[in-house]
């Protein structure tokens, strides 16, 4: 999408903000907590608007915004020398889990969170984009700057790691592949 006139940019950016800010702020809060996330969200949309005003063609605003957010997080981590243990986790279950019972959702999230120890940082990020935010492989590939084929392989590898983690603990794993 290329926006030429300021009014068009304002209208479309307002719509995009309304549509994408809830999921984007959830991602940022998950990574750095509420206060920093608010600042990063604002910076993310400022960079997005700057790109639009410069006439940049943006085919997928959601993926573009997540790429900006990811880059801002990398800069934030570097500037504060954060470690994985400093990153806050969501305490609520996401509706994309498609499970009936909130208790079951919470239990599954706790189990899945514990399986993260078997994943690389990139795999954790791919897992979060897919599981928590319900993103499609195409969106993840744009954000992570990897091919869709590589994302598909990474998701298969993640599912296998989770199944192995569950198996060692004697838990059921039939639904894991379908959810990823």
Outline, from the CA principal axes? elongated
- Give the helix proportion (percent range): 55-70%
Number of strands: 0
Total of helices:
8
Strand content: under 5%
**Strand/helix succession:** HHHHHHHH
Give me the secondary-structure topology.
Blueprint: H1 6-32, H2 34-53, H3 61-80, H4 102-115, H5 121-131, H6 137-144, H7 148-168, H8 176-179
Task: Explain what the structure shows.
With 180 residues, the chain is mainly α. The chain contains 8 helices and no strands. The chain has helices at residues 6-32, 34-53, 61-80, 102-115, 121-131, 137-144, 148-168, 176-179. Helix 1 packs antiparallel against helix 2, helix 2 crosses helix 3 and helix 3 packs across helix 6 (137-144). The longest helix is centred in the N-terminal third of the chain and has 27 residues, at 6-32. The chain is elongated, with a radius of gyration of 18 Å. The model is unreliable at 1-5 and 81-100 (pLDDT under 50).
Using brief descriptors, characterize the structure shown:
180 residues; mainly alpha; elongated; disordered N terminus
What's the short story on this structure?
The chain is mainly alpha-helical and 180 residues long.
């Amino acid at each position: 999408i290329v926006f030429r006139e300021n009014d068009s940019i304002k209208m479309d950016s307002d719509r995009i903000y309304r549509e994408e800010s809830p999921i984007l702020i959830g991602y940022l809060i998950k990574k750095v907590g509420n206060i920093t996330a608010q600042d990063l969200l604002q910076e993310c949309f400022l960079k997005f608007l700057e790109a639009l005003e410069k006439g940049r063609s943006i085919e997928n605003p959601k993926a573009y915004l997540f790429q900006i957010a990811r880059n801002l997080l990398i800069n934030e981590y570097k500037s504060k020398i954060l470690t994985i243990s400093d990153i806050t986790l969501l305490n609520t279950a996401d509706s994309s889990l498609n499970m009936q019972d909130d208790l079951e959702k919470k239990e599954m999230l706790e189990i899945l969170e514990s399986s993260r120890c078997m994943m690389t940082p990139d795999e954790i990020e791919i897992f979060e984009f897919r599981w928590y935010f319900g993103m499609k492989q195409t969106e993840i590939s744009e954000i992570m700057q990897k091919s869709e084929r590589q994302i598909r392989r990474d998701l298969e590898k993640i599912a296998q790691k989770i199944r192995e983690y569950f198996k060692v603990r004697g838990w059921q794993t039939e639904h894991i592949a379908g959810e990823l």
